[in-house]
């Protein structure tokens, strides 16, 4: 489940069973902010199915109760026969969105509000770099900034994590946030402290302004800790990304995301990236080697798009060769 209240479209909302996205309605003569409701998204179990809009708006204070009713519909009517069909997406596929909305309204006990306007931006924001913060209504101090640090493939050492905590205490108010793209944000930094922060040695390892290739790199756990993994996703992704960085140094590369999953379950959300990689194993002569299937131009957000299959069984040793033309020339959608 994903809940997003801001307009930056930084969550991959459409990949989730239940998704709440920001909206508003005029109700009883007042503008009321709340959520539009989507249901039935998934990544694994047969691939990406974007969540479907239910044409329902819910007030913030009623959102938890509405989600509980959605879960109860799945509990009462969803499939129990096979683990791979135990997803809301299959119930929607079998019974349809219209039936689901009617069933939800019946359980809700009163008419549901129709959805309000979509407020999210078309493109994702990754929160890296230096960003001015919104001022809370009761805050009257100096402008504060957030600083987003790239954690390459989301892998951080204990020393680096202690270093980030130290920076948060010295420059901010001790808070640290984590992003959907596996990176770190240090919020609440006054403007006159930004220069010193960006000179800190740790920011050479966790940069604020990485290359476009590392910037959008996201990876599932891989075989470090997941027994479903077919390959070492993080190790390969980093190796390939560094090679692509080297090959494209000095060239203008349009923003892109590269997501890698170690198996069809798709925890790395490879179906919603500019370039998606799904780990596999393939035979070369007598040898079985690490490889990846390649997908392009998948998208979540207000205009979701199922990725196109581009290449199968590319040996990881040749991935940089296969991806270089895509990184340089693939039109971004
Ligand atoms: S995508 Fe597969 S390998 Fe990666 S974390 Fe999920 S289940 Fe494990």
Distance between the termini: 25 Å
Percentage of residues in strands:
25-35%
So what's the CATH class of the largest domain?
Answer: Alpha Beta
Give the helix level as a range of percent: 25-40%
What is the gyration radius calculated from CA atoms? 22 Å
Describe the strand arrangement of the main beta sheet, using strand numbers.
9-10-11-12-13
Order of helices and strands: EEEEHHEEHEEHHHEHEEEEH
Instruction: Give the class from helix and strand content and strand pairing.
Output: alpha+beta
- Could you say which small molecules are bound to this protein? iron/sulfur cluster
Number of helices: 8
From the spread of the alpha carbons, the general shape counts as globular
The count of DSSP E runs of length 2 or more, i.e. the number of strands, is: 13
Low-confidence stretches: none
What is the number of independent domains? 3
Average pLDDT, rounded to a whole number, is 95
- For the report, how would you describe the main beta sheet? 5 strands, mixed
CATH superfamily of the largest domain: Sulfite Reductase Hemoprotein, domain 1
**Name given to the CATH architecture of the largest domain:** 2-Layer Sandwich
The CATH topology name of the largest domain reads Sulfite Reductase Hemoprotein, domain 1
């Amino acid at each position: 489940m994903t809940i997003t209240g801001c307009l930056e479209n930084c969550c991959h909302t459409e990949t989730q069973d239940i998704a709440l996205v920001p909206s508003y309605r005029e109700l009883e003569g007042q503008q009321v902010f709340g959520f539009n409701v989507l249901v039935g998204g998934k990544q694994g179990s047969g691939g990406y199915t974007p969540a479907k809009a239910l044409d329902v708006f819910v007030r913030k204070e009623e959102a938890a109760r509405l989600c509980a009713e959605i879960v109860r519909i799945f509990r009462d009517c969803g499939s129990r026969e096979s683990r791979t069909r135990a997803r809301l997406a299959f119930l929607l596929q079998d019974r349809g969105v219209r039936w689901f909305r009617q069933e939800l309204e019946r359980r809700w006990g009163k008419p549901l509000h129709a959805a309000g306007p979509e407020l999210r931006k078309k493109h994702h924001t990754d929160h890296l770099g230096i960003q001015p913060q919104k001022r809370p209504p009761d805050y009257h101090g100096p402008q504060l900034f957030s600083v987003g640090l790239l954690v390459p493939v989301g892998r951080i050492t204990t020393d680096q994590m202690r270093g980030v905590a130290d920076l948060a205490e010295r420059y901010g108010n001790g808070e640290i946030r984590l992003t959907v793209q596996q990176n770190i944000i240090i919020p609440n930094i006054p403007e006159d402290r930004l220069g010193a922060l960006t000179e800190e040695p740790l920011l050479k390892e966790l940069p604020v302004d990485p290359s476009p290739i590392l910037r959008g790199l996201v990876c599932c756990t891989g075989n470090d800790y997941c027994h479903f993994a077919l390959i070492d996703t993080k190790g390969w992704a980093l190796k390939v990304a560094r090679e692509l960085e080297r090959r494209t140094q000095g060239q203008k590369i349009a923003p892109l995301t590269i997501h890698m999953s170690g198996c069809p379950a798709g925890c790395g959300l490879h179906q919603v990236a500019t370039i998606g990689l799904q780990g596999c194993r393939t035979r070369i002569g007598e040898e079985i080697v690490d490889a990846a299937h390649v997908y392009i131009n998948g998208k979540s957000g207000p205009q979701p798009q199922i990725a196109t299959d581009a290449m199968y069984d590319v040996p990881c040793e040749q991935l940089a060769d296969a991806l270089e033309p895509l990184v340089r020339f693939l039109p971004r959608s």
